Amino acid sequence: MIELLNIFFVFFSILIFLIGGIFNFYNYKKTSIISIDNLSQNLILLLSLVWIASIFDLSKEVLFIFLYIISFFSIFYFILAKKNFSIDTLSFFSIFLVFILSIVIANDLFLSHDSRLYWIEKAKIFYNGKFVNDDLTIKNEYPHFGTYLWGYFWKNSYIDYEYTGRIPYLIIYIFAISHTVNVLKTSVTIKLILFLIIMLFSYESKYFDGRQDILLFSFNLFVFRFLYEIFINKQEVKKNLILTILILNLILWTKTDGLLYLIVYGLVLFFFLERKNKIISLFSILTLFILKIYFYKYWEISLNPSAQMYDENIFQRITEIDIFYRSYSIVYWYLINLFKNPLLLISLLTILGIYIFDRRFLFKFNYIFIFYIFITLGIFASFLPTMYDFPFAMIGSFDRIILQHSGIFLLPIFYFIVTKLK
Q: Model confidence at 315, in pLDDT bands (50, 70, 90)?
């Protein structure tokens, strides 16, 4: 019973902020404050505030109480202003599902090798009130945001159980899926069916054991939705661009792969945005990049994304390897692991079918294909100079890397289905 209260406390604490978040002050469409879009946007804002606390070493307890107070005042204002508090079906379903799956996390305390060796050790640092300069773990150069988030909610939980800090991973995952399907102009029934299809092919309880890949999967879903709004719907471009930049910042500070995503998304925005927004996005991305370099330099953290994986002189390393053998091995293991990821595999086959049926339909989604080509080439290039035993480096991680962006083709596919059903 006490564990159910703990789960309720964590989720209620987050939900209070999502309802009382700042984006509800700019609800020009007069939609419900508890709509999945408003909740998701305020979730991104909450994560960004937690990120600020993570780089300035702010008190977790003080921030928690401060956000609580501000949120209650905001909700009180919304009540006086007679804002719409009705809850739609998708929001109710998402909240209910988070609570149910949180019970699964609470009853499955197994941590994988990487989680035990790297991630929980970093989470303990922040749980114990220490900072990045106290990080003596094996991978102290790894980005810290995901483990700070873990430590933050672990610290501010009703009872002192580490799994509490991983429940936000689940909330982010569920809301990212709901937020994705909610962009479609179709019935709630179809949205729920599409939601369940995504979960069927992407959910495994082991993904919530503290590894960061499920966070990148979720963050990428958010970005895909925002880019859809910018390039396809062409609605609220500035707002969606700001939300995109906020998410890209979180991606950069969650895992070393985040740098590759930042570069590729930056190229997509530069190629496809209008000139004015192109400059804004380029400036923002450069700022994020410089900020991280400054932070790492200031705290004397290695800028090598993985000290065990890459030699200091990477160009010399490239001259020492058999590029042909490694290239062949990378392609081989990519294909092997692609078949282990049903979401991306089925998406690619469906996209192929759409191309055969109506290739002109896909032209409007050029930005998606550019992203997929560049991110795939970037992944291939990152494995070429690795110092890990080859091909062991890929066998142990390729499936999780593919998971991170496996939802890339969902919106083009769903858009096609919904369009043809009309």
A: low
Q: What angle do CA 380, 356, 230 make, to 5 degrees?
A: 65
User: How many other C-beta atoms are found inside a 10 Å radius of the C-beta of residue 173?
Assistant: 23
Task: Taking the CA atoms of 387, 389, 390 and 393 in sequence, report the sign of the dihedral they define.
Answer: negative
List the helix and strand counts (H, then E) for the chain.
20, 0
- Residue 15: pLDDT band (50, 70, 90) is confident
- pTM attached to this predicted model: 0.95
> What is the pLDDT confidence band of residue 88, given thresholds at 50, 70 and 90?
confident
For residue 184, count other CB atoms closer than 10 A to its CB: 17
CA-to-CA distance for 162 and 153, rounded, in angstroms? Answer: 9
The residue to which tokens 């982010």 are assigned: 172
Calpha distance 386→390 (Å, rounded): 8
- Are 34 and 19 a contacting pair, CB within 8 Å? yes
With contact defined as beta carbons under 8 Å apart, do 254 and 143 qualify? Answer: yes
Of the given ranges (97-101, 284-288, 393-397), which has the lowest mean pLDDT? 393-397
